[in-house]
Write a structure and sequence with these properties.
Structural class: alpha/beta
CATH topology of the domain at 2-171 and 204-229 and 296-309: Rossmann fold
Strand content: 15-25%
Order of helices and strands: EHEEHEHEHEEHEEHEEHEHHHH
CATH class of the domain at 2-171 and 204-229 and 296-309: Alpha Beta
Distance between the termini: 40 Å
Strand order of the largest sheet: 3-2-1-4-5-6-10
Radius of gyration: 19 Å
CATH superfamily of the domain at 2-171 and 204-229 and 296-309: NAD(P)-binding Rossmann-like Domain
Largest sheet: 7 strands, parallel
Number of strands: 12
Helix content: 40-55%
Length: 328
């Protein structure tokens, strides 16, 4: 069995590649020319050049593969040119899945995001069935992933054998870039967190996310979504766990959302028109922080057998990896 993994140079994608190799699956990775391969160090994978915006390269990469794990996405809270989110996440996904249909891929897992899952009014938890609209999406990343997911569902309805997974906020080893969640951990470890916003998140070990991908490939129902998450926490609770792991004091000052939002507007305006660098206070991140991103993960646990490594252990692995690799 051979699987093509897109996005294997990233956090979740590299974890999926490792899990596939451990399961005895031959792995081919699609890598954009010039992309760093650090996340794939030591892995016996085949690397082929290609780009989601180059349809010919996609068909070539898929040839002789039976499975496709489409993990790649343009994942960021800011971009100088927002159209990149739609070219890669929407158009690129459509092109890849069309190519997969043409070459006869037997089974596909598409990696969406928890951000496309709705949240109920008040402080309830979201499920795969909670309604949400494009207008409720905060920022171009979430809007592009919402649109991409809609395209995937349309293709599933006409026979494409694709299952959708929606990871929450993964933490753990090999967060090379790091991701926005990983950057929060690094900033905390460096003592840069003087205050916090009251918000909630669902954390999961990235290795459990990878196993969830393999289980979705084997057991998931075509056209269905599965939340790959573990434990709902407030950000303050995450910092308290990190404090116990690192010895760094957790921030005690809670900033009101209404105070931070204007700062984020100014910071993002400066990035857009002057520095052209990722803002330290990204506007989309602050907008998302007003919601408690808490979810019910029972469907994936029940139907896929999604593992639930304790979040404390996942955070401990992340802290150790960041320390061992010089991030903090």
């Amino acid at each position: 069995m051979k699987a093509l993994v897109t996005g294997a140079t990233g956090f979740i994608g590299s974890a999926v590649a490792r899990a596939l190799l451990a399961a005895g699956t031959e792995v081919r990775t699609l890598v954009r020319p010039g992309t760093g391969l650090r996340a794939l160090d030591g892995l016996a994978v085949e690397t082929v050049p290609g780009d989601l915006c180059d349809a010919a390269s996609l068909r070539s990469a898929l040839t002789s593969c039976q499975q496709l794990f489409h993990v790649a996405a343009h994942y960021a809270l800011w971009a100088r040119d927002p159209s990149v989110f739609y070219r890669v996440n929407v158009d690129g996904t459509k092109a890849l899945l069309e190519a997969a249909k043409d070459v006869g891929i037997e089974r596909i897992v598409y990696t969406s995001t928890i951000g496309t899952i709705g949240l109920p009014e008040g402080r309830g938890v979201g499920t795969e069935e909670t309604a949400i609209t494009l207008e409720q999406m905060a920022g171009d990343y979430k809007r592009s992933k919402f649109l991409a997911e809609q395209e995937v569902m349309k293709m599933a309805k006409v026979g494409l054998p694709v299952v959708i997974v929606n990871p929450s906020a993964p933490v753990g080893v090999c967060d090379v870039k790091p991701t926005p969640t990983g950057q929060i951990l690094v900033d905390f470890m460096k003592g840069r967190m003087a205050a916090y916003i009251e918000t909630g998140m669902n954390l999961i070990d990235v290795e459990d996310v990878a196993v969830g991908h393999l289980q979705a490939m084997e057991r998931g129902k075509v056209g269905e979504r599965y939340i790959l998450g573990c434990r709902n926490l407030m950000l303050k609770e995450v910092f308290e766990i990190l404090s116990g792991l690192t010895g760094v004091k957790a921030p005690k000052l809670k900033l009101p959302h209404g105070l931070v939002l204007p700062l984020a507007h100014v910071n993002t305006w400066i990035a857009d028109y002057f520095t052209h660098q990722t803002p330290r206070i990204p506007l989309e991140g602050v907008r998302m922080a007003k919601y408690l991103m808490h979810y019910d993960c029972s469907k994936a646990i029940r139907e896929l057998g999604l593992p639930q490594t304790p979040v404390e252990l996942a955070l401990e692995k992340a802290v150790r990896w960041f320390r061992d690799h010089g991030y903090a």
